[in-house]
Design brief:
- By secondary structure, the protein is an alpha/beta fold.
- The protein is 35% helix and 23% strand.
- It has an 8-stranded mixed beta sheet with strand order 1-2-3-4-6-5-7-8, with helices on both faces.
- The protein starts with 5 loop residues before the first helix and ends in a 14-residue tail after the last helix.
- The C terminus is likely disordered.
- It binds guanosine-5'-triphosphate (GTP).
- One of its GO terms (cellular component) is cytosol.
- Keywords: GTP-binding, Hydrolase, Metal-binding, Nucleotide-binding, Riboflavin biosynthesis, Zinc.
Length: 249
């Protein structure tokens, strides 16, 4: 017997979508109107959040009921901000943004993450249609926040960002885009242009069969604090340099 009121279930089931595979389900909740302050203006995005679950069911109350006994705040859920008529418009600009606690939240200038987050939202709004995926299980290129802190300690002792990961026993980049691409495909089947300098993100989209119509580079906010880091991304991680907009180009 469900402890949830029928009214609550009927409200929520209209806003939850099941995206299933052979192995698991992604439950996508939304759209939810999210007024966002961007460059002094209020811009309204459609916000969706998803939960990965082994149980695959159309009876969402089964999933909702379980949530109160699991502390989801101890885990990370990703989400997406959608702008414009994302399903239908011919052209859409997307970004797969990896969470960066230090750069996105604190405004750290050791990296370019905070700049890229704000800039890509502005680019999507200017373009008219698009989506920003905020990938919450990608901290530190997939090594997690505590390990990123240790990697920063090594970087303060002369290691570069790649060496630091490797010397802690990680690969340089452990990120996976699979779930985000499943969500993308559920929201749009038409081509997308990707905001990135990272060829691995382009490969992930291409190999998923998603129709990729192009890439928009995003460099900027170079400072004495992140110059070496940005250069290492080009020299060692294979990031695509944009002529004239990155140090030492
Ligand atoms: N391990 C580690 N992770 C970092 C460091 N600086 C930033 N990050 C993480 O790197 C991720 C962002 O990756 P970037 O290489 O800046 O950019 P990208 O996402 O690969 O590519 P773009 O789409 O071009 O931005 C975020 O998860 C950050 O937390 C660092 O020095 N070490």
């Amino acid at each position: 017997m469900s402890v949830l009121q029928e009214k609550v279930i009927s409200i929520l089931e209209k806003k939850i979508k099941l995206i299933k595979s052979d192995k698991d389900a992604l439950y996508l909740v939304g759209p939810i109107q999210l007024p966002v302050s961007l460059d002094g203006e209020t811009v309204t995005f459609q916000w969706y959040c998803w939960l990965q679950c082994e149980e695959v069911t159309n009876h969402f109350e089964r999933i909702i009921e379980k949530l109160s006994s699991v502390n989801l705040a101890e885990m990370q859920q990703s989400s997406v901000l959608v702008y414009g008529d994302f399903a239908s418009n011919e052209e859409a600009l997307i970004r797969m943004h990896s969470i960066c606690h230090t750069g996105d939240i604190f405004g750290s200038q050791r990296c370019d993450c905070g700049f890229q987050l704000e800039q890509s939202l502005k680019m999507i709004v200017e373009h008219g249609t698009g989506a920003l995926f905020y990938l919450a299980n990608h901290e530190g290129r997939g090594i997690g926040l505590f390990s990123k802190a240790m990697a920063y300690v090594l970087q303060e002792n002369g290691y570069d960002t790649v060496e630091a990961n490797l010397n802690l026993g990680f690969v340089d980049d452990a990120r996976n885009y699979g779930d985000a691409i499943r969500i993308l495909k559920s929201l749009r089947s038409k081509p997308v242009m990707l905001i990135t300098n990272n060829p691995k993100k382009l490969d992930a989209l291409r190999s998923s069969g998603m129709d990729l119509s192009g890439r928009v580079p995003l460099w900027g906010n170079v400072s004495e604090f992140n110059e070496k880091y940005l250069q290492t991304k080009i020299n060692r991680s294979g990031h695509l340099a944009a002529s004239g907009s990155c140090p030492n180009d």
